[in-house]
Design brief:
Elements (H helix, E strand, L loop, with lengths): L1 H13 L6 E5 L5 H9 L4 E4 L2 H7 L8 E4 L8 H4 L5 E5 L2 H13 L4 E7 L12 H9 L1 H5 L3 E8 L7 H22 L8 E3 L6 H6 L4 E4 L1 H4 L7
Parallel strand pairs: 1-2, 1-8, 2-3, 3-4, 4-5, 5-6, 6-7
The structure holds pyridoxal-5'-phosphate.
Protein backbone atom coordinates (compact mmCIF):
# COMPACT_ATOMS: atom_id res chain seq x y z
CA UNK A 1 0.00 0.00 0.00
CA UNK A 2 2.76 2.42 0.95
CA UNK A 3 4.64 1.83 -2.28
CA UNK A 4 1.43 2.15 -4.18
CA UNK A 5 0.61 5.68 -3.04
CA UNK A 6 4.21 6.84 -3.27
CA UNK A 7 4.47 5.40 -6.74
CA UNK A 8 1.19 6.89 -7.90
CA UNK A 9 2.26 10.27 -6.60
CA UNK A 10 5.64 10.07 -8.26
CA UNK A 11 4.14 8.93 -11.56
CA UNK A 12 1.57 11.62 -11.40
CA UNK A 13 3.99 14.42 -10.63
CA UNK A 14 6.34 13.27 -13.38
CA UNK A 15 3.69 13.78 -16.05
CA UNK A 16 2.45 17.23 -15.10
CA UNK A 17 4.34 20.38 -16.11
CA UNK A 18 6.34 22.26 -13.50
CA UNK A 19 4.56 25.14 -11.86
CA UNK A 20 1.22 23.36 -11.57
CA UNK A 21 0.07 22.94 -7.97
CA UNK A 22 -1.19 19.46 -7.15
CA UNK A 23 -3.85 19.24 -4.46
CA UNK A 24 -4.07 15.60 -3.35
CA UNK A 25 -7.76 15.16 -2.59
CA UNK A 26 -7.95 12.97 0.50
CA UNK A 27 -11.68 13.21 1.28
CA UNK A 28 -13.09 9.97 2.79
CA UNK A 29 -9.54 8.56 3.07
CA UNK A 30 -8.08 7.66 6.49
CA UNK A 31 -5.20 9.63 8.01
CA UNK A 32 -2.80 6.68 7.60
CA UNK A 33 -3.07 6.98 3.84
CA UNK A 34 -2.61 10.73 3.97
CA UNK A 35 0.48 10.14 6.11
CA UNK A 36 1.86 7.86 3.38
CA UNK A 37 1.51 10.58 0.80
CA UNK A 38 3.05 13.00 3.31
CA UNK A 39 6.00 10.65 3.83
CA UNK A 40 6.45 10.58 0.06
CA UNK A 41 7.01 14.33 0.31
CA UNK A 42 3.59 15.69 -0.54
CA UNK A 43 2.30 18.62 1.52
CA UNK A 44 -0.91 19.91 -0.10
CA UNK A 45 -4.15 18.07 0.59
CA UNK A 46 -7.77 18.83 -0.18
CA UNK A 47 -10.93 17.99 1.76
CA UNK A 48 -14.56 18.81 1.07
CA UNK A 49 -16.23 18.40 4.47
CA UNK A 50 -15.41 20.90 7.21
CA UNK A 51 -15.84 18.52 10.12
CA UNK A 52 -13.89 15.72 8.46
CA UNK A 53 -11.07 18.17 7.82
CA UNK A 54 -11.17 19.55 11.37
CA UNK A 55 -10.89 15.98 12.70
CA UNK A 56 -8.00 14.96 10.45
CA UNK A 57 -5.93 18.11 10.82
CA UNK A 58 -4.72 17.55 14.45
CA UNK A 59 -3.77 13.94 13.66
CA UNK A 60 -1.33 14.95 10.94
CA UNK A 61 1.85 17.05 10.71
CA UNK A 62 1.53 20.81 11.06
CA UNK A 63 3.28 21.70 7.83
CA UNK A 64 0.46 20.32 5.68
CA UNK A 65 -1.34 22.94 3.60
CA UNK A 66 -5.04 22.13 3.83
CA UNK A 67 -7.24 23.24 0.97
CA UNK A 68 -10.99 23.25 1.33
CA UNK A 69 -12.36 22.26 -2.07
CA UNK A 70 -16.07 21.59 -1.54
CA UNK A 71 -19.23 23.56 -1.05
CA UNK A 72 -18.80 25.33 2.28
CA UNK A 73 -21.78 26.07 4.50
CA UNK A 74 -21.54 29.30 6.44
CA UNK A 75 -22.05 27.64 9.83
CA UNK A 76 -19.05 25.37 9.16
CA UNK A 77 -16.51 28.08 8.37
CA UNK A 78 -15.48 28.35 12.01
CA UNK A 79 -14.16 24.77 12.04
CA UNK A 80 -11.52 25.43 9.40
CA UNK A 81 -10.81 29.17 9.60
CA UNK A 82 -7.96 28.83 12.14
CA UNK A 83 -5.75 26.86 9.76
CA UNK A 84 -7.10 26.45 6.19
CA UNK A 85 -4.63 27.54 3.46
CA UNK A 86 -7.03 28.10 0.58
CA UNK A 87 -10.82 27.95 0.23
CA UNK A 88 -11.57 26.95 -3.38
CA UNK A 89 -15.29 27.36 -3.73
CA UNK A 90 -16.61 30.73 -2.60
CA UNK A 91 -19.87 31.37 -4.42
CA UNK A 92 -21.59 34.17 -2.50
CA UNK A 93 -20.94 37.44 -0.72
CA UNK A 94 -22.60 36.02 2.39
CA UNK A 95 -20.12 33.16 2.55
CA UNK A 96 -17.23 35.52 1.95
CA UNK A 97 -18.46 37.73 4.82
CA UNK A 98 -18.50 34.79 7.18
CA UNK A 99 -15.01 33.70 6.10
CA UNK A 100 -13.79 37.26 6.66
CA UNK A 101 -15.35 37.32 10.13
CA UNK A 102 -13.90 33.96 11.20
CA UNK A 103 -10.52 34.84 9.72
CA UNK A 104 -10.57 38.02 11.80
CA UNK A 105 -11.31 35.95 14.92
CA UNK A 106 -8.25 33.84 14.11
CA UNK A 107 -6.20 36.90 13.28
CA UNK A 108 -5.55 35.62 9.76
CA UNK A 109 -6.01 36.53 6.13
CA UNK A 110 -7.59 33.58 4.30
CA UNK A 111 -6.98 33.22 0.55
CA UNK A 112 -10.14 32.29 -1.37
CA UNK A 113 -11.08 31.41 -4.95
CA UNK A 114 -14.36 32.44 -6.56
CA UNK A 115 -16.24 29.43 -7.86
CA UNK A 116 -17.79 29.78 -11.30
CA UNK A 117 -20.60 27.73 -12.73
CA UNK A 118 -19.13 26.37 -15.96
CA UNK A 119 -20.78 22.97 -16.30
CA UNK A 120 -23.96 22.30 -18.23
CA UNK A 121 -25.22 20.31 -15.24
CA UNK A 122 -27.79 22.11 -13.10
CA UNK A 123 -26.57 20.80 -9.79
CA UNK A 124 -23.16 22.42 -9.62
CA UNK A 125 -22.65 25.52 -7.50
CA UNK A 126 -21.03 28.69 -8.70
CA UNK A 127 -21.25 32.28 -9.87
CA UNK A 128 -21.63 33.70 -13.35
CA UNK A 129 -19.48 36.60 -14.50
CA UNK A 130 -21.92 39.35 -13.61
CA UNK A 131 -22.50 37.99 -10.13
CA UNK A 132 -18.77 37.81 -9.49
CA UNK A 133 -18.27 41.29 -10.84
CA UNK A 134 -21.06 42.66 -8.68
CA UNK A 135 -19.64 40.95 -5.60
CA UNK A 136 -16.22 42.46 -6.24
CA UNK A 137 -17.67 45.93 -6.79
CA UNK A 138 -19.66 45.91 -3.54
CA UNK A 139 -18.85 48.12 -0.57
CA UNK A 140 -19.00 45.09 1.69
CA UNK A 141 -16.36 43.23 -0.27
CA UNK A 142 -14.13 46.28 -0.39
CA UNK A 143 -14.26 46.64 3.38
CA UNK A 144 -13.14 43.05 4.07
CA UNK A 145 -9.64 42.99 5.52
CA UNK A 146 -9.22 39.30 6.34
CA UNK A 147 -9.76 37.59 3.01
CA UNK A 148 -7.79 37.71 -0.20
CA UNK A 149 -9.16 36.64 -3.58
CA UNK A 150 -6.46 34.46 -5.15
CA UNK A 151 -8.25 33.44 -8.34
CA UNK A 152 -11.06 31.27 -9.67
CA UNK A 153 -12.25 27.67 -9.50
CA UNK A 154 -14.62 25.56 -11.54
CA UNK A 155 -15.80 22.02 -12.15
CA UNK A 156 -16.52 20.78 -15.65
CA UNK A 157 -19.43 18.53 -16.55
CA UNK A 158 -18.81 14.91 -15.57
CA UNK A 159 -18.66 13.38 -19.04
CA UNK A 160 -16.41 11.58 -21.52
CA UNK A 161 -17.01 14.38 -24.01
CA UNK A 162 -13.64 16.09 -23.67
CA UNK A 163 -14.53 18.77 -26.21
CA UNK A 164 -17.36 19.92 -23.96
CA UNK A 165 -15.03 19.81 -20.97
CA UNK A 166 -12.47 21.84 -22.91
CA UNK A 167 -15.03 24.53 -23.75
CA UNK A 168 -16.05 24.75 -20.10
CA UNK A 169 -12.47 25.10 -18.89
CA UNK A 170 -11.85 27.68 -21.59
CA UNK A 171 -14.79 29.69 -20.29
CA UNK A 172 -13.28 29.64 -16.79
CA UNK A 173 -9.96 30.87 -18.14
CA UNK A 174 -11.86 33.59 -19.93
CA UNK A 175 -13.62 34.65 -16.69
CA UNK A 176 -10.24 34.71 -14.99
CA UNK A 177 -8.78 36.96 -17.68
CA UNK A 178 -11.72 39.36 -17.55
CA UNK A 179 -11.65 39.59 -13.76
CA UNK A 180 -7.91 40.16 -13.83
CA UNK A 181 -8.36 42.98 -16.31
CA UNK A 182 -11.33 44.61 -14.61
CA UNK A 183 -10.77 44.04 -10.90
CA UNK A 184 -7.27 42.74 -10.15
CA UNK A 185 -5.00 44.43 -12.63
CA UNK A 186 -2.47 45.50 -10.02
CA UNK A 187 -3.02 42.61 -7.63
CA UNK A 188 -0.40 39.88 -8.01
CA UNK A 189 -2.20 37.67 -5.50
CA UNK A 190 -4.95 37.07 -8.08
CA UNK A 191 -3.25 34.37 -10.13
CA UNK A 192 -4.79 30.93 -9.64
CA UNK A 193 -7.12 28.90 -11.84
CA UNK A 194 -8.22 25.78 -9.98
CA UNK A 195 -9.55 23.34 -12.57
CA UNK A 196 -8.97 19.68 -13.39
CA UNK A 197 -9.71 16.41 -11.58
CA UNK A 198 -8.61 12.80 -12.17
CA UNK A 199 -10.61 12.38 -15.36
CA UNK A 200 -10.01 15.78 -16.98
CA UNK A 201 -6.78 17.30 -15.63
CA UNK A 202 -4.90 16.96 -18.93
CA UNK A 203 -7.43 19.12 -20.75
CA UNK A 204 -7.51 21.52 -17.78
CA UNK A 205 -3.74 21.99 -17.94
CA UNK A 206 -3.90 22.60 -21.69
CA UNK A 207 -6.51 25.28 -21.04
CA UNK A 208 -4.46 27.14 -18.44
CA UNK A 209 -5.05 25.49 -15.07
CA UNK A 210 -2.60 26.42 -12.28
CA UNK A 211 -4.05 24.12 -9.60
CA UNK A 212 -5.36 20.60 -10.20
CA UNK A 213 -7.37 18.68 -7.60
CA UNK A 214 -6.67 14.96 -7.85
CA UNK A 215 -8.24 12.26 -5.67
CA UNK A 216 -8.81 8.91 -7.40
CA UNK A 217 -5.60 8.93 -9.42
CA UNK A 218 -3.56 9.17 -6.20
CA UNK A 219 -5.59 7.49 -3.47
CA UNK A 220 -7.64 5.07 -5.55
CA UNK A 221 -11.39 5.08 -5.91
CA UNK A 222 -13.68 6.16 -3.09
CA UNK A 223 -16.42 3.93 -1.73
CA UNK A 224 -18.91 6.73 -1.53
CA UNK A 225 -18.62 9.41 -4.14
CA UNK A 226 -19.47 12.89 -3.04
C1 LIG B 1 -13.63 14.91 -5.07
C2 LIG B 1 -13.21 16.17 -5.70
C3 LIG B 1 -12.08 16.22 -6.52
C4 LIG B 1 -11.23 15.02 -6.87
O1 LIG B 1 -11.93 14.13 -7.68
P1 LIG B 1 -11.21 12.88 -8.40
O2 LIG B 1 -12.09 12.60 -9.56
O3 LIG B 1 -11.20 11.77 -7.40
O4 LIG B 1 -9.85 13.28 -8.78
C5 LIG B 1 -11.73 17.46 -7.04
N1 LIG B 1 -12.45 18.57 -6.79
C6 LIG B 1 -13.54 18.55 -6.01
C7 LIG B 1 -14.27 19.83 -5.77
C8 LIG B 1 -13.97 17.36 -5.44
O5 LIG B 1 -15.06 17.36 -4.66
Amino acid sequence: MIMEIQERLRNFLSQIPEGITLVAVSKTKPVVLIKEAYDAGHRIFGENKAQELAEKKPQLPDDIEWHFIGHLQRNKVKYIAPFVSLIHAVDSLKLLKEINKQAQNSNRIIPCLLQFHIATEETKFGLNYDEASELLASEEYRSMKNISIAGVMGMATFTDDMELVRREFRSLKNYFDRLKENHFRDDNAFKEISMGMSNDYRVAIEEGSTIIRIGTKIFGSREVTH
